[in-house]
Recover the amino acids of this structure.
């Protein structure tokens, strides 16, 4: 069987001259310790991190806005109006979004569930953001369809200000706490700006297969 | 799959004469190099991260058996299935079996070099399953019936006007008045066509940039989002990945991510980094019902423990080819198989045999720029030299070159004869060059003088003059020892 | 007064055959810096053509010969980054695991230097007493640049040459396409690369192209002369030593 053939060969050729037991111990230790390696310096103060997050996201052609918990629906409606888009959004059943939009959606029409590709705008709630590169972390789950992140032309992501982290390495302990060691949501999307391609003569074009626009609504909390 | 590596020299002649190609290659020179340099300079920890990235992969390669077992266990635990493939044909077989089981008629595909390595598209077509490439560059070359000429920018050899012609030829539904002048309209056209394919496909096939052992997660890094639509919309998601894609933990992946995009496109981070663990969960409104990982060896396990092990650190960023003067001059197709540039010059002889692939490790000036920019610090020139050693040991290098080399080495080991010979050569060439100090023709050096003159010597050799005592510069104290 | 530094000059096979002027320039620069220069006449070549052709056995024979002839000196200096790189970086690699030769090769390698960087980094040379009224451009030869880190040193000394104006070419750190036997084995690719290099040299409108490696210089000079370029070509040591009376490499423009 190929599995055993491959593994046998690797075992024979593996360098170091250490015993299998020693190597198993080293591997187990490495996975257990999940050491963080080299962490590029990031701003220490939370406010500076937020500012940097916004700058980096915008450098990646996303747009950002900061608002309060009660201002989210309006911020979304404003942005849709400014881009001449219908006041219709599709979301998952995410409780956090419901709390922010529920009853205060104004003239916004809310649709729930996964996207079939006909929606103009999807709205998701991020698990967190990373100020290093202006990256959003969006998790899949019963209340968070992954299609919302990719099928609609426009993607709006709501992010709590206090969820803006310094490094990618800060994401994973949160997931281990929430899901259990070694467990993951089905999909973790790290998103940095809207979709793009430079495959034709290296000309950068936005909106390749995913959204043309990415708008980030940061909520003070 | 057709292999034209043995005809590398003819390929080169064609490539150098191809004006469309030369125009397209000027973009590589202009773009990638500057962007990578700016991105590296903007991150003070970049060099330290390269060291860390190298160390992570070295550790993985020394324990690859254990990490692969760990990965398999965790994929299974998350509800997915791992299929082991020792060879390309076995990998194709696994993929076909999975497709047949769900009665697939077509498969959407994210960009994958492993797919190219195992010749998947042609095989699926022969088996009655239509493969649809969804990365814009891959889509373009699929229309053209070509292979990628670059590992991250597969259509880098194609100009916009050529894409326009291809779209007109293949997208026959297009009214002739439909404007396709701007690259934007070409993109919109591809987006519209492929959107239907995404929504109707039965199986989605992607590659993987990383396989995380800790969680049984496969990771793709893209800019377009095509890989994501490929894997969340169909009922079945198949990941095809080679063994060495393993990293121990999510933290280790994060370290390497920082050097990947910067080295590849000069971005700080690619737009989409997507981590997939198993099939859709209970209650999930979308995602695939099945999650398969086909793990391909195809000779890689033979590299472990050899002088070529370091090559398995490669993360396929393309920096080596972007910075290679040979690649910049001839493009990727001249290399004649799947992997071009310096990384291809090391990998190709491994996969197709040094008998067929020997040209590539020889076609390098050893300028070292590839190693200088490789985020994983792979000593690419050294690996290419190892292939030259294998060739030499097996008497595969061209007989004339071998004879000349042996004659020269024989002479170099006999200093007295060597001095006599060089004195005669210096004198002869000096006469030939005359007052112009150069010659446009030299017997047996046509390869040189076809393109450039040969500067001629100054008359006597240095050693002869030194011995004759003509070295005194006034204060010298040394002498012939 | 302390003992003078004893230098074994590794002339290199190309300088010996094609351009003795570079050897004499090296001797002059070293002596002016206070060194005692010796030239073992048993030297031939560093073995690089064999090494890069995969011929380890012949490389090792030649390397042993070089080490034996030169290991007695305080330093071994070569007017070439490529040959100095071969001696200092690749000899230890070649003899790795060789009980008899590894230690010798490593000790030897530790004493090997490229000429210009030796003058600045070891002898502490700050300036040269040379004059040349010319607009000059400098090409960074690959081995010197990437194996030995030579980039600032020649520019620093060139800046002290009276009358000399340095006009940097674009991509001076990009290969000229020589690559030893590469230039004849894959002459079409080599030509494409050196053509690009010649264009960037011409764009500087320099009177003179300099570099620290004769292989690259023969290649670039051959191309520039064939093209009818106005830029002449010399080894950097000739200018630093003020020895520019001999005709340039490949003759006058």
């Amino acid at each position: 069987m190929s599995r055993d053939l491959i593994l046998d060969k690797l075992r024979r050729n593996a360098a170091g001259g250490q015993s299998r037991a020693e190597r198993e111990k080293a591997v187990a230790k490495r996975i257990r310790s999940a050491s963080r390696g080299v962490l590029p310096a990031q701003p220490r103060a939370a406010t500076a991190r937020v500012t940097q997050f916004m700058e980096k996201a915008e450098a990646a052609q996303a747009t950002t806005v900061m608002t309060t918990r009660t201002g989210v629906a309006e911020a979304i409606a404003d942005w849709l109006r400014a881009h001449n888009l219908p006041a219709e959004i599709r979301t998952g059943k995410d409780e956090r979004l419901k709390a922010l939009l529920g009853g205060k959606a104004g003239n916004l029409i809310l649709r729930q569930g996964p996207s079939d590709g006909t929606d103009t705008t999807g709205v998701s709630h991020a698990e967190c953001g990373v100020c290093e590169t202006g990256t959003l972390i969006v998790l899949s789950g019963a209340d968070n369809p992954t299609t919302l992140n990719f099928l609609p032309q426009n993607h709006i992501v709501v992010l709590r200000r206090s969820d803006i982290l310094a490094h990618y390495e800060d994401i994973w302990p949160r997931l281990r706490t929430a899901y259990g060691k070694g467990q993951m949501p089905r999909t973790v999307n790290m998103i940095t700006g809207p979709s793009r391609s430079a495959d034709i003569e290296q000309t950068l074009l936005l909106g390749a297969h995913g959204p043309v626009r990415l708008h980030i609504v940061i909520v003070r909390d | 799959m057709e292999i034209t590596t043995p005809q590398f020299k003819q390929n080169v002649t064609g490539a150098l004469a191809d004006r469309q190609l030369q125009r397209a290659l000027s973009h590589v020179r202009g773009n990638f190099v500057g962007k990578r340099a700016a991105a590296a300079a903007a991150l003070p920890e970049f060099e330290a991260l390269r060291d860390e990235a190298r160390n992570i992969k070295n550790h993985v390669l020394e324990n690859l058996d254990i990490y692969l077992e760990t990965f398999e266990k965790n994929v299974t635990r998350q509800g997915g299935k791992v299929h082991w493939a020792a060879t390309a044909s076995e990998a194709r077989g696994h993929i076909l079996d999975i497709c047949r089981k769900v009665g697939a008629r077509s498969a959407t595909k994210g960009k994958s070099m492993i797919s190219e390595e195992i010749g998947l598209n042609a095989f699926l077509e022969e088996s009655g399953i239509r493969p649809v490439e969804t990365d814009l560059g891959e889509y373009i070359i699929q229309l053209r019936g070509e292979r990628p000429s670059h590992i991250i920018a597969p259509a880098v050899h194609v100009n916009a006007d050529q894409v326009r012609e291809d779209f007109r030829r293949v997208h026959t539904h297009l009214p002739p008045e439909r404007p396709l002048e701007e690259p934007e309209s070409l993109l919109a056209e591809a987006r519209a066509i492929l959107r239907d394919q995404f929504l109707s496909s039965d199986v989605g096939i992607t590659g993987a940039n990383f396989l995380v052992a800790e969680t049984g997660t496969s990771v793709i890094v893209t800019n377009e989002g095509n890989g994501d639509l490929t894997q969340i919309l169909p009922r079945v998601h198949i990941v095809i990945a080679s063994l060495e894609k393993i990293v121990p933990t999510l933290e280790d992946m994060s370290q390497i991510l920082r050097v990947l995009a910067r080295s590849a496109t000069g971005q700080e981070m690619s737009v989409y980094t997507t981590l997939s663990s198993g099939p859709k969960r209970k209650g999930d409104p979308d995602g695939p019902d099945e999650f398969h990982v086909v793990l391909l060896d195809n000779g890689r396990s033979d590299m472990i423990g050899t002088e070529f092990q370091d090559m398995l650190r490669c993360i396929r960023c393309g920096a080596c080819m972007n910075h290679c003067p040979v690649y910049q001059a001839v493009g990727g197709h001249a290399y004649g198989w799947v992997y071009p540039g310096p990384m291809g010059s090391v990998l190709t002889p491994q996969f197709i045999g040094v008998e067929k692939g020997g040209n590539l490790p020889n076609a390098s000036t050893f300028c070292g720029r590839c190693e200088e920019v490789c985020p994983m610090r792979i000593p690419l020139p050294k690996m290419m030299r190892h292939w030259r050693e294998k060739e030499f040991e097996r008497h595969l290098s061209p007989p004339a070159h071998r004879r000349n080399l042996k004659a020269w080495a024989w002479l170099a080991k006999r200093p007295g004869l060597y001095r006599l010979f060089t004195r005669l050569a210096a004198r002869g060439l000096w006469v030939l060059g005359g007052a112009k100090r150069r010659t446009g023709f030299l017997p047996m050096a046509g390869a040189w003088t076809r393109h450039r003159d040969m500067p001629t010597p100054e008359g006597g050799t240095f050693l002869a003059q030194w011995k004759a005592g003509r070295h005194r510069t006034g204060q010298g104290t040394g002498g012939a020892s | 007064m302390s003992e003078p530094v004893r230098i074994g000059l590794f002339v290199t096979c190309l300088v010996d055959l094609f351009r003795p002027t570079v050897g004499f320039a090296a001797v002059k620069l070293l002596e002016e810096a206070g060194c005692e220069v010796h030239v073992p006449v048993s030297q031939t070549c560093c073995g690089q053509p064999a090494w890069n052709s995969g011929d380890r056995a012949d490389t090792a024979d030649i390397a042993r010969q070089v080490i034996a002839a030169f290991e007695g000196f305080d330093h071994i200096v070569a007017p070439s980054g490529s040959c100095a790189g071969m001696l200092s970086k690749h000899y230890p690699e070649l003899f790795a695991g060789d009980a008899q030769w590894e230690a010798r090769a490593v000790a030897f390698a530790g004493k090997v230097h490229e000429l210009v960087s030796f003058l600045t980094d070891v002898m502490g040379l700050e300036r040269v007493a040379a004059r040349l009224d010319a607009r000059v451009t400098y090409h960074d030869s690959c081995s010197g640049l990437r194996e030995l880190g030579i980039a600032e040193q020649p520019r620093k000394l060139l800046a002290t040459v009276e009358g000399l104006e340095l006009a940097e070419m674009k991509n001076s750190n990009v290969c000229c396409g020589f690559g030893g036997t590469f230039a004849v084995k894959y002459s079409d690719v080599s030509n494409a690369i050196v053509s690009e290099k010649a264009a960037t040299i011409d764009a500087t409108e320099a009177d003179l192209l300099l570099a620290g490696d004769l292989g690259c210089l023969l290649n670039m000079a051959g191309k520039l002369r064939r093209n009818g370029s106005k830029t002449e070509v010399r080894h950097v040591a000739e200018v630093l030593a003020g020895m520019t009376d001999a005709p340039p490499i490949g003759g006058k423009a």
